[in-house]
Amino acid sequence: MRDSTRYLTQTFLAGLFAALPLVATVVVIVWLVQFLYRWLGPGSMFGNVLRRFGLGLTESEVIAYLIGLGIVAVAVFLLGMVVRTSLVHVWRRGVLGVVQRIPVVRNVYDIVHSLVDLLAQRDEEKLKSMQPVWVRFGGQPGESGVRVLGLLSTREPVMMGDQPYHAVIVPTAPVPVGGGLLYVPACQVEPAAIGLDQLTSIYVSMGVTSGQHLAISKPAAAATSAREQAGQADSAQ
Question: Structurally, how many domains does the chain consist of?
Fold first, then answer.
């Protein structure tokens, strides 16, 4: 009876652990779709603008939204054709010239343009400057203390008083697109021997994949091996 109960329990847990990654993936995708629908769907401010484009052609709000979306897509495609030809100079002198003359609009455009270039990986130097780092809170270099895994936004520090500070983005788990921007003394920032993919994996998994991407100390590795051996022994019994 006891062996049957253990078998049923272990089988159920095996199925549960096998289903969890799939369920988590579905949850993240649903959240992303809901987020996009809330900001770009028919009920959003952007959706209202698209519906106005198409309401003159149909009374259906859904069809009007789709027509407006098609009009915007064609306009973006035509703009891409302009950018890929010699007419790009006309675009820069005309529209961008006007934007650059408006103080507040100019600052917002410059920030958004820099972020878009970064996401498009056009500027390789900027992309390389954003690297995973460890932020130390308490303790001296090489000593124990709290460590936070973050992303260095730029290699160039800013001076606050007579001390250099680094701008570090600290993501949130399990959705790393959020987080906070911290200005940390340069002496408390250390490079992390991982890439952006590994950093994202650690945060999305809420630290579960830390052992796959971060170095494990020998005592911790020995303890992990001992637990695995004990688990195998219990399964064999």
Answer: 1
